[in-house]
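Z., the sequence and structure:
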Amino acid sequence: MDDEDMSCTSNDDDDYDCCDDDYYNDCDVDATDDVAVTSTHSEEAEFECLNVAQVEKVFVESVKTLMLRLNIGDKVAKLLLVANSWDIEYIVSMYRMNRYDLFRQSHMAAKSDVAYEKPKNGYCSVCAIDGYESLASLQCGHCFCEQCWNCHIESRLSEGVATRIECMESECGVYCPPDFVYEILEKGPLRAKYDRFLFRDLVLSHRELKFCVGKDCQVVIRSNEDKPKRVTCESCHTAFCVKCGVDYHAPTSCDTIKQWLTKCADDSETANYISAHTKDCPQCHSCIEKAGGCNHIQCTRCRYHFCWMCFGDWKTHGSEYYECSRYKENPSVAAEANHVKARRALEKYLHYFERFENHSKSLKMEEQLRDKIRKKIEDKVNEHNGTWIDWQYLHSSVSLLTKCRYTLQYTYPFAYYMQSGPRKQLFEYQQAQLEKEVEELAWAVERADATARGALEAHMHRAEHKRQTLLHDFFF
């Protein structure tokens, strides 16, 4: 692999484009003035981007450190590091308490650093070939011919295994170290495949390293964050959760979002059921197709204002409490038959899934709104109607709208798995407040020409304030 392909460089000339692709860093709204306690927290992870040579340097330095601290060989040190997530302090503490248990944990109990041996006599236990010249064994002493070893290694590589290619003897716990594999495999495609898989396994075994999830990106992210924070690759600009590698999902935890995504995949037929793009106006029953991200809908025929999600009258929709986001439990469910309970469970899932998907679709529609506003700013600047800086607040408004809606989308998996009680009631209240502000901001942004700058910035401030409050209470 060419190290140049792994380089993480940034071009100052492309800063504007990078900002356009990253709404988290693209809006200049300070809502934390009113939420002072959140100022010590950040959704952004501390990280660095590494190429292949830099990653290998990290491995070498860790091996050298452990060798010096425990006075052991480099191969044993590397095996211990791989088996224990490259946690040097943990290995040292366990080694000093009981060094032999630690060696057994690494599946190389008290073995020497020599990985490859030519037996003086014996025969291959697989093909029964007799003759020491064609035999090879690990430190366990189990003899097999080089051709059988080659087939075994090739088979394990086809299964995606590299660091844990075990001895062919049944129930033998010794793994093939790289030096042994290199002696068996000739230079060529199979050996190159082993090198790729070995590097991949070493990265995956390291608690601070993670491959960038961007398409065809070769960057490795290094971070010691213990929370699911957001990281953005400096090379391909892909943003993802630094802990689990999926799309950033605050306030939902990594385990919860994994459950949610699995459930959504399993219930694909249910997703088809709610995938329609049109609904009827609750007043005149005209067929309406949603063309924007805002859930505050006005029927073009009868001019009735209503909520796209619950069909409630918008005039009273958010006057006291934004009820639309809450799922209302049925108190008589416990006494119902099993098939009725199952239907209730499906209704609950549909409630949260429909809103999760609706905000996802709104985000895609609001990306089109970003393009329109960008074009509008360019037109105004070209017409000498102010500078780009004068109209930057329009760009910031749609960026903040996207940011807030993104957080709002991931509140629904969080709420779905949350146990009923006072804490869930508080969360639903804050979720409702955020949803109310997001929809009011969306309405104002989609009608930016008719909205005064001060009013638009007030909407922005309130929405970000509600977002920060929710994250502070349930995520940070």
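Confidence is low (pLDDT under 50) at residues 1-20, 31-39, 107-115. The first strand starts at residue 48 and ends at 50.

Let me know what you think.
H.
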